[in-house]
């Protein structure tokens, strides 16, 4: 079993504070985080839990899709997966809520029809470990297109 670790060091309050998240397991980066940029339209210069979640979901989905295509008898050539994670105020419980995730997938695949690909893409949305972890998100939308 693999365990991956990230650490955030935070200083200050919610509105005036800031932090740095470090990807400890891989050592591939340290990124600034701040609450005001988390909820702003522009997040330049700082990442957020939602952006990191989007990265996790997109990469997990891409890997799972590749395996699903092979299991269905196809040969994956290339895939582009984009995850858009929407956060909004939680009207019921206060704080914030991840209300929607949109996965946009464009893939080149040999050996599957568009219908077969669509079925694999939908199954992957359910089977990807990050999708399973995000099962409480009210809406996870998939837009998958097989490119020729």
TrEMBL record:
<protein>
    <submittedName>
        <fullName>OsmC family peroxiredoxin</fullName>
    </submittedName>
</protein>
<dbReference type="GO" id="GO:0006979">
    <property type="term" value="P:response to oxidative stress"/>
</dbReference>
<dbReference type="InterPro" id="IPR019904">
    <property type="entry name" value="Peroxiredoxin_OsmC"/>
</dbReference>
<dbReference type="Pfam" id="PF02566">
    <property type="entry name" value="OsmC"/>
</dbReference>
<feature type="region of interest" description="Disordered">
    <location>
        <begin position="1"/>
        <end position="21"/>
    </location>
</feature>
<dbReference type="GO" id="GO:0004601">
    <property type="term" value="F:peroxidase activity"/>
</dbReference>
<dbReference type="InterPro" id="IPR052707">
    <property type="entry name" value="OsmC_Ohr_Peroxiredoxin"/>
</dbReference>
<dbReference type="InterPro" id="IPR036102">
    <property type="entry name" value="OsmC/Ohrsf"/>
</dbReference>
<dbReference type="InterPro" id="IPR015946">
    <property type="entry name" value="KH_dom-like_a/b"/>
</dbReference>
<feature type="compositionally biased region" description="Polar residues">
    <location>
        <begin position="1"/>
        <end position="12"/>
    </location>
</feature>
<dbReference type="InterPro" id="IPR003718">
    <property type="entry name" value="OsmC/Ohr_fam"/>
</dbReference>
């Amino acid at each position: 079993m693999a365990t991956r670790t990230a650490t955030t060091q935070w200083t200050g309050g919610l509105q005036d504070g800031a932090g740095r998240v470090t990807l400890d397991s891989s050592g591939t980066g340290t990124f600034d985080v701040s609450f005001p940029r988390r909820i702003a339209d522009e997040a330049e210069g700082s990442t957020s839990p939602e952006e990191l979640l989007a990265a996790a979901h997109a990469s997990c989905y891409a890997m799972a899709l590749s395996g699903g295509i092979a299991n269905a008898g196809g040969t994956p050539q290339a895939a582009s997966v984009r995850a858009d994670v929407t956060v909004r105020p939680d009207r019921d419980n206060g704080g914030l809520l991840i209300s929607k995730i949109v996965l946009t997938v464009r893939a080149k695949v040999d050996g599957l029809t568009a219908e077969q690909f669509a079925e694999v893409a939908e199954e992957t949305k359910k089977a990807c470990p990050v999708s399973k972890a995000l099962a409480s998100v009210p809406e996870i939308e998939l837009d998958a297109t097989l490119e020729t």
